[in-house]
Design goal:
Length: 170
């Protein structure tokens, strides 16, 4: 019996998974801080939870690196095609790449909108609480999320043109 090949549970493009996990971690930490009565106002508890949510967002990325060894080859070909913007020669990989484009775009849009709301909101809250370093941290994360979303959308657009264009992507 051959080993079961893996495809990710969340197939959203970057930075969608990062933003979703960071938002979930921020919400969980916020509730935990409020229930524990960690001192300070609810706004300070939320801001502290937001700082904790930033590194937790990296979990999907780390898991992706760890679990990469037994991934479906068509899925990996689709990811390579997206990074390079060149349509694969193999028909199965071309189909996988075409199937992945909508969720890639969705992940970029989720990351874009969620990143602005979460990290932009946290930066504004940090400034309101006179915490400029925390505001800077969230501002830097927001810039990185916006850059990843723009890069992902650009790569998806380039791959779509390569898949729709004449020839086999070369």
């Amino acid at each position: 019996m051959s080993p079961r090949l893996r495809t990710p549970l969340v197939r959203l493009g970057a930075p969608g998974p990062y933003v979703l996990v960071a938002a979930l971690a921020t919400a969980a930490w916020s509730v935990a801080r409020l229930l524990a009565g960690s001192g300070g106002s609810p706004a300070e508890a939320l801001l502290g939870a937001g700082v904790g949510g930033v590194p937790w967002g990296l979990v999907p990325l780390a898991l992706g690196w760890v679990l990469r060894a037994d991934r479906d080859p068509a899925w990996e070909a689709a990811r390579r095609a997206l990074r390079r913007g060149v349509a694969p020669d193999d028909e199965r990989a071309r189909a996988a790449a075409a199937d992945q484009l909508p969720t890639t775009r969705q992940g970029a849009v989720v990351g874009l909108a969620g990143g602005v709301l979460l990290f932009g909101g946290m930066a504004v809250l940090a400034l309101a609480l006179d915490r400029p370093l925390t505001a800077g941290l969230h501002g830097l994360v927001l810039v990185a999320v916006l850059a990843a979303a723009a890069l992902t959308l650009g790569r998806a657009r380039r791959l779509e043109r390569a898949l729709d264009g004449p020839g086999q992507g070369g």
